Each structure stands twice: as structure tokens, then as C-alpha cells.
Amino acid sequence: MFFVDTIELEGLGNRSYLAGGRRTAVVVDPPRDIDQVLVAAARQEVRIAHVVETHIHNDYVTGGLELARVTGAAYLVPAEAHVAFPHVPVADGDVADIDAGLTLRAVATPGHTPHHTSYVLEENGLPVAAFTGGSLLIGTVGRPDLVEPRLTEHLARAQHSSAHRLAAGLPDETPVLPTHGFGSFCSSGQAEGDATTIGREKAANAALTMDVDSFVTRLLAELDDIPAYYTHMGPANAGGPAPVDLTPPAPADAEEIAARLAAGEWVVDLRSRIAFAEGHVAGSFNFEADGKIATYLAWMIPWGKPVTLLAESSEQLSFAQRELVRVGIDRPAAAATGTPDRWVPEGSRPVSFPRSTFAGLAERGTDGVVVLDVRRASERAAGYIGGSVHIPVHELHQRIGEVPAGPVWVHCAGGMRAGIAASLLDAAGRDVVAVDDGFAAAAEAGLNVVTG
């Protein structure tokens, strides 16, 4: 008997896996906060004997090195990956014994990275699961442009070849268990559905239904923006990440918050965009804790700049800390919990800005206002409000001076990124309205949506 437990990392859009038998188990692509992995192993009453990486990750800091140290597990890393710590190098065809009758076979699947390796879990010699990392995903593949621009086309072709190798070497009923594809920008597209098999991918995945030239042309045309913080993830993982520290940050009072803002540091309010708009510390930025805070804060903050977190509760603060250590933002400079009236100096009051919908914008009319679209270029290509200004949210902090004069109505695809952008504009002294609405409502409201 074997089991496979999935460990969801919803904020980053990834998955890790714990798989094993009656006594021992392997962990595939563990997150940096390893406590949840240890809890999963305790629940299954197994010892973690192996920790494996499919590749050197670009979108998060791994917990593999620390997990192997804590558990005494063998740490398996693809042999062609250049890392600075002790490990067991893994080459194509290598086999590790996981438990009685249960083995893990390495399959070289370059494409997402040159050294990418998938792992096939076999019970009594028969494949029962394929951990495909950033190779074969649900309906797509991992993007090939995160390593070196000159290698992108070569790696795209390798992705096609690797997908075919997996499909040819495994039974149709084999579950495909990828790391990426659930929101991560490491995926060239988002998963359609929650689970898949080799057989389903043969029928629907472009890597397995298109010839290599057509596939590569399509894949390269669909590549999206790369989060800026990815630059720092590979070196951190190759060098050997330090253990995490999730203890509460030093508390900050109103005077310290004001001083940090005056010093040009980032003060980040973790509350909902609704609560933030109703009242917040002037100059603070809004990144919702339950949004994609790890992706967007790490993408936008100047790397290494001190950040102070403001939360409505200690639970919200703890959740955000956990999300941020996964992308290398290890220790907030300070933090405060409560409500905005406690975060401003005596004699000051929280500030606010209005929220609206696309129907509200249509009723007001677009004359005399700036309509700012902060979606990515790939999203805007499918349709945009005529006359709107386009600056993706991840570029707005550096380009805020390009926003034309006048009141700004800012929107995205659903409201979260508009909330971030509105907070940046508000901090810059602009008159802003956050459009908290799905973009499909723009045309329904009668706004001029340009397509084609």
C-alpha cells in the first residue's frame, strides 16, 4: 500500500507532495516552511527518508535543505544543478528505495530548466504516480524562459521532447502530479481542472497534440511577464537557504510607523482592500494577506527594502509572514496589529479613498478622468476600455509619474490589483477611485471595450 498527500501552496500556486508506504516516505519539492510537511508525515506515521527536488526553483525558496537536515533524510538534487551544499546527485534512471516494494525512479525531463528531473513512483515495479515538477503540467508545461534568454527556444523544444518521453514511458492511467500550474508564473498557462493523468494529457495537452515547431511557436508567443523577484530565488536555492524564523516581528507604535514612512521604507497594510479604502495610514500600501501577497509584494518591493506589516490580527500577521518567507522576505522590520486609528500619531486621522464598479464609471462617464488599466499586457490584448492608460501593476511604483493628471479610476481583472494600485496612487497624493469589479462587467455597463 502507498499514499500520496498533496500540500497546497495556494498563494504561490504550487503543490508539494509527501508520498510513501507504511514506514517511510519521500517529499517532493518542499516549501520553505517545513512544519506543515512534518505535520503531514506525523499524520501518516511515517519517517521522511528522502527529500527530492525536481529542479532549482525560480518562484520560491525551497525548504528541502532544512527538511533533510531536520529529518536526516537523503537530499536528492538533479546532478546537473550547480548547488553549494552536500546532497545526493540524481541522474536519469537512478532509483531510490522509498519503502517496501516502493521505489522512485528519476527521469530526465529538461525544458523548464536544463537539469529538470521528474520522478516516477513505482509499486512493485509498476508506475503509480509521476511527479512532474515544472515539466508536464495539467494542460500545459512549465515555461522555458526563466533560465537564460538565449536558451529559451532550445528549452521550449526540450519541453516538447520531455512531455513525449513521459507520455511514451508511462501507462495512460498514471496520475500526473506537477508542482506548478495552479497560479504560479512558472507555468506557461494555468491548470484546467484539479487532477489529470497521462492519458488525459495525451488527448488535451498541446505539448502532446502539436508538432514541435507549432508547439514552440505557440508556447513562445504566450509567455507572460516574469516576476522581478525570480532573479533572487535561483541563487538562494542553489546557495542553500537558511532556516526560517516565524516568530512575531518587533512591535511598532504610531510614531515608529510614521518614522519608517518618512525614511522611505514600505509600510504594508494586510487588511482587505475594502477595509483599506475606508481608512488607512497615509503613505501605506495595501497588499491583502489573503490575496497573492507573496507574488505581488515580492515582485514590486525594491529587493531588500525594510517592510513593516500592519494587520488586523496576530493571525493575519502570522499568515502573511509565512507567505513571505516562501519568497525570501524573511523578517519584517516591525509590525502592528489592530485598527488604523491606532497606527497614526496623536492628532492625525486615517485617510480614505472611494471604491466603485464599472457601472459606476459608466454612470460618471470617462470624460475628465484617467482610466488606468493595471492588468498585464497579455490580459489587455483580449480587450480594454477605449482611451484607457495601461501600466501593469508590477510596474506602477516605478512609473507612477507617467499617470496623466486628473482623477484616476483604476481597474484590473477582478479588484485585487486595482486595490494595490489605488494604494500606490493614494500614497503619491493622487485623487483615486478603485474599481472593485470583474472586467466582464465593463462591457455590460456600456463602456467602450475595444477588442481585436
UniProtKB/TrEMBL annotation:
One of its GO terms (molecular function) is metal ion binding. This is MBL fold metallo-hydrolase. GO terms for biological process: glutathione metabolic process; hydrogen sulfide metabolic process. Signal peptide: none annotated. Residues 261-352, 365-451 form the Rhodanese domain. It holds the Pfam family Rhodanese. Keywords: Metal-binding. The lineage of its organism: Bacteria, Bacillati, Actinomycetota, Actinomycetes, Kitasatosporales.
